[in-house]
Amino acid sequence: SDGVEATVVVKNPCDFPIEFYSLDFDEQYLEEEKILRMVRSESQKTFWMPPRTAGETLPPEVLEYYEAQKRLKVQQAEIKAMAEAEAEAKAMGKAPPANQKNVTFYPEPMVKMIGNPITQALRRHLGIDPIAERRKAQQWQRRGIVVIVHGAPRAGKTAIAAGLCYYYDALYLSIDTVVKEAIAND
């Protein structure tokens, strides 16, 4: 059909705000559903979330996790595109382009920090402080080691370092990045 137009009048006799929406037309709802589908694990059909007031967004832990996952996917796509371009150049017998940029891969350590972001949001809402619990546990742990990955150009040092960081949940430092930041900060 061509559609039907109607006028809706909403009155709120209460002292608190009331939020109403149509799931078909609410852009915020559709975006939040996409985020929650990505955040929850496959085994989680039902999960608890902290209550929200009218118009409030998802908890910051969930939004940070989503942004980290988006950045990670972009970085992975860049690495894949760079590897494909390099393979194509080798297949054609040409040297890789001189203007090809190096992609620095930073695994997101917050992804595996305490559990999933929904659990983090619930802990914050309930007032449970996982940081204090972690500090107690870290007092009994050793500090760890430093691994330096060194090799010839285009030998795969960055990929190996990123894999080690991901596997051991460690931090990644690039010498180039450290030097550039030191120069920029005097």
UniProtKB/TrEMBL annotation:
Residue ranges of domain Hydin adenylate kinase-like in the record: 147-185
SUPFAM superfamilies: P-loop containing nucleoside triphosphate hydrolases
GO CC entries: axoneme
Pfam families, sorted: Hydin_ADK
InterPro entries cross-referenced by the UniProt entry: Hydin-like, Hydin_ADK, P-loop_NTPase
Domain of life of the source: Eukaryota
GO biological process terms held by the UniProt record: axonemal central apparatus assembly; cilium movement
PANTHER family: DLEC1 DELETED IN LUNG AND ESOPHAGEAL CANCER 1, HYDROCEPHALUS-INDUCING PROTEIN HOMOLOG
Protein name per its UniProtKB record: HYDIN protein
Organism whose genome encodes this protein: Pomatostomus ruficeps
Higher taxonomy: Eukaryota, Metazoa, Chordata, Craniata, Vertebrata
